[in-house]
Amino acid sequence: MPESQELTPITSFEQVRQQWEKLLTRSTVNNLYITPVWQELWWDAFQDGCSLAGFYMSDTAGDVTAIASLSRCGNNYSLLGNSDTFDYNDFVIAEGAENNFYHTLLDAISANGDHRLELYSIGEDSPTLTMLPDLARESGFVVEIEEEDVAPRLALTDSWDEYLAGLSKKDRHELRRKLRRLEGHEKLALVLCVGRG
Question: How many domains are there within the chain?
Answer without folding.
Answer: 1
